[in-house]
Amino acid sequence: MSTALPLEAEEHLSWLAAERGRSANTLAAYRRDLHQYVAWLGERSLAAVVPEDIEAYVAYLRGTGKAPASIARAVVAVRGLHRFLAEEGDVDLDPGAAVATPRVPRGLPKALSEEEVARLLDGVVGWEPAARRDRAILEVLYGTGLRISELVGLSMGDLDLGEGLVRAFGKGSKERVVPLLGMAHRALTDWLAPSGRPALAPAQWARRGDAEAVFLNQRGGRLTRQGAWGIIRRHGDRVGLGDKLSPHVLRHSCATHLLDHGADIRVVQELLGHASISTTQVYTLVSQQRLRSVYESAHPRARRVRAGS
Questions:
Q1: Distance CA 112, CA 101 (A)
Q2: Count of alpha carbons within 13 Å of 29, Cβ hemisphere only?
Q3: Arithmetic mean of pLDDT, 81-107
Q4: 30 catalytic, yes or no?
Q5: Which member of 22, 82, 252, 274 is catalytic?
Q6: Which domains does the chain show, CATH number per domain?
């Protein structure tokens, strides 16, 4: 991006990191949004912006075909910047206060069926180190509901295999402890056995954090988020599920299948690390739709009838 951010925008991002604890990923997204906003403003200064300018920017974003969620995030970034300038006394009025954040249509998470998950997990064959690692990644993601960033961020000290527990650090570095049981526990134990992770460990670690990483790449470094999703997509393609796999799909599947089998929504909320129960409630809509579909197809008197018959 050729447009440099004004000093006050850089100060705002630094404030978000230091005072609000925003994650590196969130800050990077806000930085991209503010770069685009400043480029759109052109020669106009931030101090000269009025509400009509921000509304015009929202219309511009809609015209580019951006997804509603991306537009909403961009508006949050812009409004946050102008609010910061007003609170710091750089401007007299906050032009973003009068501009509403666009509503984002509430979509249902896309979950695999239990049969599809089984096909994905059973598709990882072999006992070489890479196969052990890939099997553990898939089993742990589905078995615990971890985010992909939480999975690749795991260190050896976060595991308690004796008690069947794993410590995860979610959004905003919030810590939670989740169960690690059944097939996920077995797959992770196999990966940590001598023929798994130790076989990929280098003679000398390139970075200090790599030595504690639970999941390693083929070069013996900590597996990245992109590397992990490449592994997932590769195995999905092998069993014909590539088009259905996307970031979060195993997490969605974990939550949906727990609710399908009667898990309490508060337990699922704790497991996934959702700050609000409303986020978890989206998954109940998936389960209700699946229940209705099964009922209509299975009950002999549930099929729709024509009027007058």
A1: 32
A2: 14
A3: 84
A4: no
A5: 274
A6: 7-98 (1.10.150.130), 114-295 (1.10.443.10)
